[in-house]
C-alpha cells in the first residue's frame, strides 16, 4: 500500500531523516512512535507532500509521489496543527474537501457528524473551534472520504474520551472495509490497543518495525520502547 525507500531530509546542516525505509501493507494500522524530534512529523510531511524530501522514493498503491493529483487521492492527511479559514463554516469546508475527492455522500457525512457529536457546531465558523473540535472535524472528513490510506499526526491530541472511543470504532470499521492507517502517537498504551504493528523512529532512523503480537511477547510496549531507546545508538 505505502512504500518508502531511503527517505532523506535535512534542514540546513541538520540531517533529520537518515534513510527511512518502510512498507505498510493494506489493512495495517501502523503506529509511528519516537521521542520528540525523532523525525515523525517530517516523515509524514514528506509522504504527504507538505515537505519535499532531499532523496528517496515514496509510493502509495504503486502511484509515485511525483504523480501529484493521482497520488493525493490515495490518502487523507490529518496534520498535528490544523490550519483553517476562520470565517468558513465547518460543514461547507468539509463539503468542499469531499468534492475534491469526489466523495459527496451526505448521508455518510451526517452519520460521522453524529458519531463525533458535532451536530450543534458543524455549521459554525471554523475560527470558533477548539483544538479538539478541529480534530473531530478532520476525522469526520477523513472517515467520510474513506481513502485507501489514512495518515495522521497525533490524531488523539485534544479528543475528549467520547471522541477517543468514536475514533477507535471508526478506525476498526474503516480497516475492516479495506482501509490502511499510518499514525504517529506518543500514547503507547493507546497504540498497544489500536495498532497491528509498531514502528520506532530514533534520530531519523527506523530502529524497529514489528507486529504487535510478536512484540508484546517480551513485555509492554512501554518497556520495549524504553529498552530500544536506551540500547540503540
Ligand atoms: N521547518 C523546519 N526547519 C528546521 N528544522 C526543522 C523543521 N521542521 C522540523 N525540524 C527539526 O527536525 C527535527 C525533527 O522534527 P519532527 O517535527 O519531524 O520530529 P517529531 O518526531 O515529529 O517530534 P515531536 O514528537 O516532538 O512532534 C527536529 O529537530 C526539528 O527541530
TrEMBL record:
<dbReference type="InterPro" id="IPR003439">
    <property type="entry name" value="ABC_transporter-like_ATP-bd"/>
</dbReference>
<dbReference type="Pfam" id="PF00005">
    <property type="entry name" value="ABC_tran"/>
</dbReference>
<feature type="domain" description="ABC transporter">
    <location>
        <begin position="2"/>
        <end position="228"/>
    </location>
</feature>
<keyword id="KW-0067">ATP-binding</keyword>
<dbReference type="GO" id="GO:0005524">
    <property type="term" value="F:ATP binding"/>
</dbReference>
<dbReference type="InterPro" id="IPR051782">
    <property type="entry name" value="ABC_Transporter_VariousFunc"/>
</dbReference>
<dbReference type="InterPro" id="IPR003593">
    <property type="entry name" value="AAA+_ATPase"/>
</dbReference>
<keyword id="KW-0547">Nucleotide-binding</keyword>
<dbReference type="InterPro" id="IPR027417">
    <property type="entry name" value="P-loop_NTPase"/>
</dbReference>
<keyword id="KW-0813">Transport</keyword>
<protein>
    <submittedName>
        <fullName>ATP-binding cassette domain-containing protein</fullName>
    </submittedName>
</protein>
